[in-house]
Amino acid sequence: MSENIEDHNDIAESTAAESVEVENLEAMTEPSEGQLSHVYDEATLGRSIEAILMVVDEPVTELTLASVLEVTVGQVVDSLERLKASYEDRGFTLKAINGGWRFYSSPEFSSVVEKFVLDGQQNRLTQAALETLAVIAYRQPVSRARVSAIRGVNVEAVMKTLITRGLVDEYGIENETGAILYKTTSYFLERLGLNSLEDLPPLAPHLPDIDGLDEILDSLTD
């Protein structure tokens, strides 16, 4: 009789121990406070990454995506690779360029994209394009984010127009932020009839007191 009781107790203790282990495993797989509950859903994680990549101005690193979505870099890498494979038959691709990821038009349709862009080259530059070009000319080399901060608007589309028309080109990487820097081209000087950037008219006569202008501009991009 006592042996039966002991056996029963052993079984109860074993069952209780297994229950605790199951609870511990569940606790380990459940997201902690501050984490997104969908990080364990591959489809939702992929859509979250897509949504971010649709609005970025520069390629986004895997670490940045992981930090924003509160997941591991490994999860982000796996999701990016799955997304990349899913776009094989689309008009756009997902590429890792300069350490970051971004959407690009498919090289297969480069001629179509080129025709679409170049069809508007004979049109006059818009006021927004002229203002953006002026900022680049006087502040170069300068990042797109800095130009946006100075103008107070998103300049991605305008920058693409200026690059396509050969007025602006990439000029290395900013060491502190990793952002792409831009400068005006020799074609820009040719169109304005200038020999060098030193021939640009001075801004001072057209501005109020500009003491501390650099500090003000720096504060806009902090």
Q: What keywords describe this structure?
A:
Arc Repressor Mutant, subunit A; 222 residues; 10 helices; mainly alpha; 11% strand; three-stranded antiparallel sheet
Indicate the proportion of strand residues: 5-15%
CATH architecture title of the largest domain: Orthogonal Bundle
User: What is the 3D form?
Assistant: globular
State the separation between the terminal residues, measured CA to CA: 78 Å
Helix content: 40-55%
Strand tally = 5
Number of domains: 3
CATH superfamily membership of the largest domain, which one? Winged helix-like DNA-binding domain superfamily/Winged helix DNA-binding domain
Computed over alpha carbons, the radius of gyration is: 28 Å
How can the largest sheet be summarized? 3 strands, antiparallel
Q: The CATH topology of the largest domain is what?
A: Arc Repressor Mutant, subunit A
What is the H-and-E element order? HHHHEEHHEHHEEHH
Return the structural class.
mainly alpha
Q: Give start-end ranges of low-pLDDT stretches.
A: 19-39
Write the layout of secondary structure elements.
Blueprint: H1 2-29, H2 42-53, H3 62-69, H4 73-86, E1 92-97, E2 100-105, H5 110-118, H6 127-139, E3 142-143, H7 144-151, H8 156-164, E4 168-173, E5 180-184, H9 186-192, H10 213-220
Antiparallel strand pairs: 1-2, 3-5, 4-5
Short account of what is shown:
This protein is mainly α and 222 residues long. Helix content is 52%, strand content 11%. The protein is globular and about 55 Å long.
